[in-house]
Known about the structure:
Layout: H1 12-24, E1 37-41, E2 44-47, E3 52-55, H2 58-61, H3 70-82, H4 94-104, E4 113-117, H5 120-135, E5 139-144, H6 152-157, E6 174-178, H7 195-208, E7 214-219, H8 233-246, E8 249-253, E9 277-280, E10 291-295, H9 315-330, H10 333-354, E11 358-364, E12 367-372, H11 383-395, E13 398-399, E14 401-403, E15 407-410, H12 418-436
Parallel strand pairs: 3-13, 5-6, 5-7, 7-8, 8-9
Antiparallel strand pairs: 1-2, 2-3, 4-10, 9-10, 11-12, 12-15, 14-15
Helix pairs in contact: 3-9, 4-9, 7-8, 10-12, 11-12
Bound molecules: pyridoxal-5'-phosphate.
Amino acid sequence: MKPKFVCRKPGPKSLKVVGRDNKVISPSLTREYSFVLKKGKGCYLWDVDNRKYLDFAAGVAVMNIGHTNPVIEKAVRRQIRNAVHVGFSDFYAELPVKFVEYLLTFLPKHLNKAFLSNSGTEAVEAAYKLARWHTNKKWAIAFKPSFHGRTMGSLSLTNSRPVQRERFWPFLPVKHALYPYCYRCPFKNKEHDGCVNLYLEVLEEKMGECDKDVAAVFLEPVSGEGGYLVPPKDFVKGVRELCDDHGVLLCDDEVQAGCYRTGKFLAIENFDVKADIVALSKAIGGGVPLGATVANEKTMDWIAGSHANTFGGNLLACAAGLATLKFMRQKKLGENAKKVGSYMISRLEEMKDEYEIIGDVRGIGMMIGVEIVKSKSTKEYGIEERSDILCKSSEKGLLMLPAGVSTIRICPPLILTKEQADLGLDILEDSIKEVCA
Ligand SMILES: Cc1ncc(COP(=O)(O)O)c(C=O)c1O
């Protein structure tokens, strides 16, 4: 089936907004193409020139329940009449409590207390501070590549693109071990089945360098910005075991992979592993800024005044969060992510066999990476090719994002149907064909 809404170059209204944006908005943001949002509905977006797009980006894995979902409008409207903000650090309100009580029903039983915030970086920052508070230890270990946010605590953990860290030294005490990148295994000269142990050896080595002063290991169960990398199950289990052996907390960053994106509510469940502290954000607020850091009450033992914020527990965010979680459960979004996501992966695998520039297809559920290379034999990163595919697809009415060095990130709303998946993949295939030619 061909798309009915083929876009050409950015329209005049879009170009105007881009021009105004360039004058007043911080140049630190990264935009791959000139899409200017007017409105959204379900899995579709319209730009200010009234062009329609299928959305395989979901506002960077945020709009899992789809755009302008009526449940959000209803919940926020109802709440806005009563109160918008209470100052939850200083006063009480029932709604944030109700939200957390409901959130806990999605999580393993041992996670029974939450700190609320407004974004992914804040949820990770709280996890980092909590780990340091609880253990009274200094070091943290994260991975390369990894992305945990951009405030100084989470940025110290982040190690993805050099530009994100350049000039921001000195960082907090963090060491980086290697995240498994199976398509580009750094241990390729060794036996493949020994790789997991080699990755774990690097992690243990890093722990050893910290003089028994490690508070936590921070792990993305599926690496997001790093290129949608799926680690081997034994690796994630091995990380848990090393944490247990060394008395170190395991902090699970579910900001991108959580909220059913991989089929399970927490992506780490795919690996049969339980974490000590979990950071959630992005999709949990249905598009309204919301973050949550969750742990067991024995771990969340910091004292009054040690960590707080102004907007955590914001009433509109909690109303949206509660409505989002109810919708996710009611509509079984995890099952849809798994079913339609598996179908998409199998279609992309077929494309990989056909096109020389698709080096790797990987993912779980609707967290799918397509790594573009110049040729399969050299595996040279296809950076320009990736940009071309993203731009051509946007011109044809499909929005996607980059991740890693040359990977296309596919993270649509989890309400995506098989027909919509086919529509998007047809556009992607057309673009790949054109770039190959
Ligand atoms: C895994 C992960 N952690 C943390 C963050 C930071 O979230 P935010 O941009 O809301 O601060 C992101 C953002 O992409 C992320 O993917």
